[in-house]
Q: What sequence folds into this?
């Protein structure tokens, strides 16, 4: 790929483009980890949020409230710079970035999914009671099949937020598109000035995010028509 | 105030030393300055961003032929790129092209305004399009002209319906403004990093900063709610 890009563009730009495109894969990996891990945690938090128990509801409410009003940057600083001081050991930026993004994602996704569950008419819950199903069975057989169409579009559009959020992870030394691009922009190489590098990075992020935005819009339209 | 967390085989695992932060009045002034600069920049850029987004969304609503397409492209591009890339481009790229010298806070203000226009433009656009059709038909049958319809019917509907999402977007962007410390603006995060580099109490200072951010976002949320109740709620 590098030879092809060097043939198309000239010497510095071809190398820069190759490196930036290769570094994009770490951005994708981190977003996938954050989405899958955050989704798992969010499932648990959402379950606790709607489970008929006051204490569990309160705990999960506090979790979502706290981490929704906490900046992602502060989470990264606490986990990436503070925790190593706390435990007195080095902490891999991969772990720090993944953990803070998972916390960030889970707080927002659980709120989205709770909203989707709340959008279902209460008659469905009462129907479950009338059929003598318990809470988990009602959730499993009646609510979740219907929640899907309310929650899929906002979930896909939240993925964009995650991808944009991963660009902050370079602050704690996570090697991704952002760190490499910033390094190239600072390098005293003719042809890697900031006004060339940053638009390239913006376009790369745009290529990651825009298909998701279009897909989210398509899903929204599809399910609105179905309803 | 200092307290220990955990003993393990006789070793003290960690000792919280919050007093290192408020021991010196310099640090307290830095934090206070940071709060003022962070919230001031966010409010100013939110205000300018709202005004520009208003016109962008109006262009799309009226299908103002070539500008309409440009506005859609602008909004989509801003919404799908991270704020930090925009910030770096505005700070380090644009001055090289157009050869001007601004203070750091002006670059931050410009970048945040650009970011706000994208998000607010999208919200306002969907608000304009969600005006109930029967109200628009009634206005057409009364032979009101386009500008009166927009001013008297579309705009109040949009503001009332979209105020919650506008305010939550405002708070979301306020929470990401910490990254303007990366270009050297003396905001709250910059104060935290400075104090951290002087005292090496990383864990404590970032816990305190998080609490400050949470408090500030709560303040913003409640004051926006008060503004909403005072101005728009009686028109509902």
A:
């Amino acid at each position: 790929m590098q030879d092809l890009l060097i043939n198309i563009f000239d010497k510095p730009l071809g190398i820069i483009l190759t490196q930036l495109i290769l570094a994009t894969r770490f951005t994708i990996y981190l977003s996938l980890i954050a989405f899958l891990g955050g989704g798992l945690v969010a499932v648990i938090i959402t379950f606790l949020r709607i489970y008929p128990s006051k204490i569990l509801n309160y705990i999960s409410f506090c979790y979502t409230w706290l981490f929704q009003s906490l900046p992602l940057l502060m989470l990264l600083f606490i986990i990436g710079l503070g925790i190593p001081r706390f435990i007195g050991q080095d902490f891999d930026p991969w772990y720090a970035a993944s953990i803070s993004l998972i916390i960030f994602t889970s707080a927002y996704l659980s709120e989205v999914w709770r909203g989707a569950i709340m959008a279902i008419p209460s008659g469905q819950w009462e129907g479950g009671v009338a059929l003598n199903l318990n809470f988990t069975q009602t959730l499993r057989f009646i609510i979740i099949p219907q929640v899907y169409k309310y929650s899929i579009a906002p979930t896909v559009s939240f993925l964009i937020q995650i991808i944009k959020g991963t660009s902050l992870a370079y602050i704690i030394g996570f090697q991704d598109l952002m760190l490499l691009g910033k390094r190239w922009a600072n390098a005293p190489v003719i042809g890697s000035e900031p006004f060339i590098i940053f638009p390239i990075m913006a376009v790369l992020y745009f290529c990651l995010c825009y298909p998701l935005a279009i897909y989210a819009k398509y899903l929204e339209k599809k399910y609105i028509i179905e309803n | 105030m200092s307290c220990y967390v955990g003993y393990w085989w006789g070793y003290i695992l960690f000792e919280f030393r919050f007093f290192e932060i408020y021991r010196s009045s310099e640090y307290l002034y830095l934090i206070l300055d940071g709060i003022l600069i962070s919230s001031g920049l966010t409010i100013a850029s939110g205000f300018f961003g709202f005004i520009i987004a208003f016109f962008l969304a109006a262009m799309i609503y009226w299908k103002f032929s070539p500008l309409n397409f440009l506005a859609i492209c602008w909004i989509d591009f801003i919404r799908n790129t991270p704020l930090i890339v925009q910030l770096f481009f505005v700070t380090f790229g644009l001055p090289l092209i157009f050869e001007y010298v601004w203070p750091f806070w002006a670059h931050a203000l410009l970048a945040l305004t650009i970011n706000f226009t994208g998000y607010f433009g999208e919200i306002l656009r969907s608000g304009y399009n969600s005006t109930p059709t029967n109200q628009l038909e009634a206005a057409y049958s009364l032979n009101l002209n386009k500008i009166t319809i927009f001013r008297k019917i579309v705009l109040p509907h949009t503001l009332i319906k979209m105020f919650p999402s506008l305010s939550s977007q405002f708070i979301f962007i306020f929470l990401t403004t910490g990254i303007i410390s990366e270009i050297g603006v003396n905001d709250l995060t910059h104060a935290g990093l400075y104090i951290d580099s002087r005292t090496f109490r990383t864990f404590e200072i970032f816990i305190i900063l998080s609490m400050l951010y949470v408090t500030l976002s709560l303040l913003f949320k409640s004051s926006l709610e008060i503004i909403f109740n005072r101005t728009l709620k009686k028109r509902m």
